[in-house]
């Protein structure tokens, strides 16, 4: 077989070597002063200081070099991306991803989804990617003709660089919209190399490696080969198709770029339709109603709470997710249905939605690689998306450090596929030239991100949170972080306060000055209902007419983000998926409804409701709330294909506990009750006589 990498033994994944001035002063919450930080991509790309200019230049050049490596090199971009799914081959001496006795080695995936290791598995994966980029940076500096003093400056820039993140829950500064970062909309970028650092190209208009990814293997004509037609000596790395999704025929990565007319696909060479991606992300995230009149000075500074921002804010609300398991994963916990009303808003669920918003779901309007598990990691956007997921993980850990590997208290909890924190995170080895079957990273090793030699810009403590001895005042640090979350992720609370200033709607939300009626949709679903093929549950008020006039009626979605058929003894694919399917391990998700209801009602779109008080909303939702199931590719499926799905609507109370003179903090939520009449007669809806949540069934939900 062709060369597998730069060494014969295992590749030990580690962080970028720490600088000598980094100190570790952790008591409980990780704290390491002077630790280099992972920045928001827009900050790095702005390159408005000499050090950022060097780091941005090195990032661009290193990613370009990384992507060009042959597919048969173990440490190539292609193989590192392939760990997440296709081409489903063994990596770095680990067992093949589908090798779960007696299952044969066949198409498979190492990545973990709908499992409590979802966020920790991706942490060493990102570390691998970050370290390989840093290694290429160092090689670029070493091989350049710059002077020794200049080389020292560039090496310092490389050693303090860390992987940037795309914060999809904040508006982008270049367009004030929820969208892709600006650099993903440009085919060329400005870089700042020293003379002799690049052989060809214009530094003012340098090819942008974030624009996409093409197969590094080329044909006789110099064009990229299809990813399912590698050279004869590299067939081992062929990428297969996924039902009607033509991944084998693609030579490049697309975002909203692949379409199909009849039997003919277009966009297989790789199309970055960033306009469609931006429109979709912003449409999903941005309610258009501004509560302030145009002549009010607050009108132009109003920042509406987007759906993603509201979801993130809720995820950090006190007791919204009480355990590691409910925060980390979409996995549903059997009889916890009677005990958890808010804990359906997980990090993995929000992450799933971003994948399809960034990639596209329809072969009619445009499909992309980010939307399908086995090929998502080939898109450079994947890594910046997951860096943000890891950032949110670190923020939640700061606020909930003692909630490590905790799970709902449920006597009937399905413990199938419940790994321990010391189980191996395959195929990531923690030692060079170690035992390829044993020396793996674990979640315990990945728990403290500062030991992996990085910090996030949001988590650098303010001066008031540092004690005289240089250690953290941990309580103040957590208060500062919660205030920061409330500031950057506007929530339902902000919308309620904005609406209440309108003279005609002071009582729109019910409750009192500090509370409001809050509405959510909770969903229990089966990721494997379509034999593992991905699908979306779309929620509509008044339905979808099929044209742009009803686009605003889409109030939320749940994306299964599967894409690999569950493994069986007859045919291999995803071993984790097969085990979960066979044991009926279901998933859970949540769609907040309060802001969409207010936007549609107050905006005049739906005149059937003029108040968010309980009786008006219940009658309105009973008549107008509908949902449909859409398979990745665009085919609408019958609800009868989803017998284990349960959709319920809940009303609870949102409450602001802000104190006068104190910085605002995320709201708290409690006292939810199911509204059976809204879903009783609808396919997959919660019924009045449901065994777990029917009328009169005792529940044990949180109360204020």
How are the elements arranged and paired?
Layout: E1 37-38, H1 41-46, H2 50-67, H3 77-82, H4 118-143, H5 148-160, E2 188-189, E3 206-207, E4 259-261, E5 264-266, H6 274-285, H7 307-316, H8 324-328, H9 347-359, E6 361-362, E7 366-367, H10 380-399, E8 424-429, E9 440-442, H11 443-446, E10 455-456, H12 474-488, H13 492-499, E11 515-525, E12 535-541, E13 554-559, H14 575-582, E14 587-592, H15 594-602, H16 614-624, E15 625-631, E16 636-637, E17 646-655, E18 668-674, H17 676-679
Parallel strand pairs: 1-10
Antiparallel strand pairs: 2-3, 4-5, 6-7, 8-9, 11-14, 11-17, 12-13, 12-15, 15-16, 17-18
Helix pairs in contact: 2-4, 2-5, 4-5, 4-10, 6-9, 9-10
Walk me through this protein's architecture.
- This protein has a single domain, classed as Orthogonal Bundle (di-copper center containing domain from catechol oxidase), CATH 1.10.1280.10.
- 27% of the residues lie in helices and 12% in strands.
- It is built from 17 helices and 18 strands.
- It has helices at residues 41-46, 50-67, 77-82, 118-143, 148-160, 274-285, 307-316, 324-328, 347-359, 380-399, 443-446, 474-488, 492-499, 575-582, 594-602, 614-624, 676-679; strands at 37-38, 188-189, 206-207, 259-261, 264-266, 361-362, 366-367, 424-429, 440-442, 455-456, 515-525, 535-541, 554-559, 587-592, 625-631, 636-637, 646-655, 668-674.
- It has a four-stranded antiparallel beta sheet with strand order 14-11-17-18. Strands 13-12-15-16 form a four-stranded antiparallel beta sheet.
- Helix 2 packs across helix 4 (118-143), helix 4 (118-143) crosses helix 10 and helix 6 (274-285) packs antiparallel against helix 9 (347-359).
- The protein starts with 36 loop residues before the first strand and ends in a 25-residue tail after the last helix.
- Mean pLDDT is 89; it is low at 1-6, 100-107 and 567-574.
């Amino acid at each position: 077989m062709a060369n597998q990498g730069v060494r014969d033994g295992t590749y030990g994944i580690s962080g970028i070597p720490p600088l000598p001035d980094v100190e570790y002063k952790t008591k409980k919450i990780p704290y390491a002063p002077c630790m280099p930080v992972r920045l928001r991509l827009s900050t790095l790309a702005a390159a408005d200081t000499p050090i950022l200019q060097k780091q941005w230049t090195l990032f661009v050049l290193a990613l370009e070099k990384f992507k060009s490596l042959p597919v048969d090199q173990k440490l190539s971009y292609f193989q590192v991306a392939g760990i997440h799914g296709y081409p489903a081959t063994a990596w770095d001496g680990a067992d093949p991803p589908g090798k779960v006795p007696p299952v044969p080695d066949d198409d498979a995936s190492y990545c973990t989804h709908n499992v409590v290791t979802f966020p920790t598995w991706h942490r060493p994966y990102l570390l691998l990617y970050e370290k390989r980029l840093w290694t290429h940076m160092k090689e670029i500096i070493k091989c350049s003709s710059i002077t020794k003093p200049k080389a020292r400056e560039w090496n310092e820039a490389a050693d303090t660089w860390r992987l940037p993140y795309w914060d999809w829950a904040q508006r982008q500064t270049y367009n004030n919209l929820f969208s892709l970062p600006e650099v993903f909309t440009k085919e060329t970028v400005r870089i700042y190399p020293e003379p002799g650092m690049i052989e060809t190209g214009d530094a003012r208009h340098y090819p942008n490696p974030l624009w996409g990814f093409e197969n590094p293997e080329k044909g006789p004509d110099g064009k990229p080969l299809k990813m399912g037609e590698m050279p004869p000596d590299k067939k081992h790395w062929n990428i297969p198709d996924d039902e009607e999704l033509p991944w084998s025929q693609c030579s490049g990565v697309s975002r909203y770029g692949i379409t199909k007319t009849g039997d003919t696909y277009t966009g297989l060479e790789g199309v970055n339709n960033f306009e469609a991606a931006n429109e979709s992300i912003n449409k999903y995230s941005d309610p258009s109603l501004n509560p302030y009149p145009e002549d009010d000075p607050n009108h132009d500074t109003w920042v509406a709470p987007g759906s993603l921002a509201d979801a993130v804010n809720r995820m950090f609300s006190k007791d919204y997710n009480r355990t590691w398991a409910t925060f980390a994963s979409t996995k549903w916990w059997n009889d916890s249905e009677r005990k958890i009303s808010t804990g359906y808003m997980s990090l993995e669920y929000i992450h799933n939605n971003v994948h399809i918003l960034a990639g596209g779901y329809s072969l009619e309007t445009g499909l992309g690689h980010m939307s399908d598990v086995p090929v998502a990691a080939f898109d450079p956007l994947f890594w910046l998306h997951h860096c943000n997921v890891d950032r949110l993980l670190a923020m939640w850990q700061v606020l909930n450090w003692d909630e490590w590997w905790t799970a709902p208290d449920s006597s009937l909890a399905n413990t199938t596929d419940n790994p321990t924190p010391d189980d191996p995170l395959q195929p990531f080895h923690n030692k060079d030239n170690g035992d390829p079957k044993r020396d793996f990273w674990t979640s315990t090793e990945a728990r403290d991100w500062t030991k992996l030699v990085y910090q996030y810009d949001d988590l650098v403590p303010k001066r008031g949170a540092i004690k005289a001895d240089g250690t953290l005042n941990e309580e103040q640090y957590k208060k500062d972080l919660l205030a920061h979350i409330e500031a950057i992720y506007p929530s339902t609370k902000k919308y309620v306060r904005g609406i209440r200033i309108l003279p005609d709607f002071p009582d729109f939300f019910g409750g009192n000055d500090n509370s409001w009626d809050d509405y959510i949709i909770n969903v229990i679903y089966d990721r494997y209902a379509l034999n593992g093929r991905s699908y979306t549950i779309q929620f509509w008020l008044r339905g979808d007419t099929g044209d742009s006039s009803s686009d605003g009626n889409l109030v939320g979605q749940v994306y299964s983000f599967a894409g690999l058929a569950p493994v069986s003894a007859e045919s291999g694919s995803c071993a984790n998926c097969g085990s979960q399917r066979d044991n009926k391990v279901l998933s859970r998700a949540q769609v907040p409804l309060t802001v969409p209801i207010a936007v549609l009602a107050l905006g005049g779109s739906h005149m059937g409701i003029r108040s968010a008080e309980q009786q008006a909303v219940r009658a309105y939702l009973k008549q107008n709330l509908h949902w449909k199931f859409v398979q990745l590719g665009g085919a609408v499926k019958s609800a009868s294909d989803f017998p284990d799905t349960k959709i319920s609507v809940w009303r609870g109370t949102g409450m602001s506990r802000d104190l006068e003179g104190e910085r605002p903090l995320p709201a708290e939520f409690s006292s939810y009750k199911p509204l059976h009449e809204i879903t009783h007669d609808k396919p997959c809806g919660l019924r009045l006589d449901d065994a777990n949540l029917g009328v009169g069934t005792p529940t044990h939900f949180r109360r204020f």
